[in-house]
């Protein structure tokens, strides 16, 4: 059975070369084991699937080498507002094995290479009212 889920990204953290102590969002998870997200203000009442995903890039230089670690939890918004989610991105089908950020050379990204930029897969943060990038807010960008 294949279930199509559409998601809208409300937060992400990827690679910030100027954040030398913790350039990768994953470093934040290793430093205290938590990543916070704020549910967008005014989200309409209802049942939602909140999906958190960590992407392992240690062998992402090889096709099909990136490792996805998704987790989901169902939440219920009560006393919300009138904002509805945009159409979002379909899962499965949101990622291609050759997308930027999925097929990538990890050695390219280092604090000494301040010109390196990384595009996180999954699309941009598009829902207004979310935190947008909690890691950058907490640890700098």
From TrEMBL:
GO MF terms, alphabetically ordered: cellulase activity; cellulose binding
Record keywords, A-Z: Carbohydrate metabolism, Cellulose degradation, Disulfide bond, Hydrolase, Polysaccharide degradation, Secreted
EC assignment: 1.14.99.56
One BP term from GO: cellulose catabolic process
InterPro entries with a match to the protein in the record: AA9, AA9_LPMO
Substrates-to-products reaction catalysed: [(1->4)-beta-D-glucosyl]n+m + reduced acceptor + O2 = 4-dehydro-beta-D-glucosyl-[(1->4)-beta-D-glucosyl]n-1 + [(1->4)-beta-D-glucosyl]m + acceptor + H2O
GO cellular component, one term: extracellular region
Localization terms from the record: Secreted
Annotated Auxiliary Activity family 9 catalytic domain residues: 8-109
Domain notes from UniProt: Has a modular structure: an endo-beta-1,4-glucanase catalytic module at the N-terminus, a linker rich in serines and threonines, and a C-terminal carbohydrate-binding module (CBM).
The family this protein is said to belong to: Belongs to the polysaccharide monooxygenase AA9 family.
Functional description taken from the UniProt entry: Lytic polysaccharide monooxygenase (LMPO) that depolymerizes crystalline and amorphous polysaccharides via the oxidation of scissile alpha- or beta-(1-4)-glycosidic bonds, yielding C1 and/or C4 oxidation products. Catalysis by LPMOs requires the reduction of the active-site copper from Cu(II) to Cu(I) by a reducing agent and H(2)O(2) or O(2) as a cosubstrate.
Protein name listed in UniProt: AA9 family lytic polysaccharide monooxygenase
